[in-house]
Amino acid sequence: MSNNRFDAMFQEADVAFNGKYKDELNRLTGLSREEIDSVVPGTEDLRVYSVLVKVVEDASRKNLSQAKLASNIRELGDVAIKIAEKALDIVL
Questions:
Q1: Which candidate, 12, 55, 70, 88, has a CA 20 to 30 Å from the CA of 4?
Q2: Per-residue pLDDT tens digits of the chain, which is 92 residues long
Q3: How far apart are the C-alpha atoms of 73 and 59, rounded to whole Å?
Q4: For residue 19, what are the CA distances in angstroms to 36, 52, 72, 76, 80?
């Protein structure tokens, strides 16, 4: 057993970043603060952006369908939809 308490987190991130939505996840995590602010300025956007990244990571790790991912993003609300539309090739 490894002594690194973060091993499980690294493995989980590897699965997500190599999963079904790896390209989308890379584009999403590559957005700059300015790009996010250009879509939805304010402090709320970073909180929503953080949750959106986790939703896409989860979808990638679990190999969810694009329809399910889109549904999950829609549940996050308008801010998440606007950010996703800027970064992802997903029909919302």
A1: 55
A2: 456 776 777 777 777 778 888 888 888 889 888 888 888 777 677 888 999 999 999 999 899 998 999 999 999 999 899 899 888 877 77
A3: 10
A4: 24, 16, 17, 22, 21
Estimate the crossing angle of helix 66-76 against helix 78-87, to 10 degrees: 130
CA 67, distance to chain mean position in Å, is 15
Interior CA angle at 26 toward 3 and 14, to 5°? 25
Per-domain residue ranges for the chain?
43-92
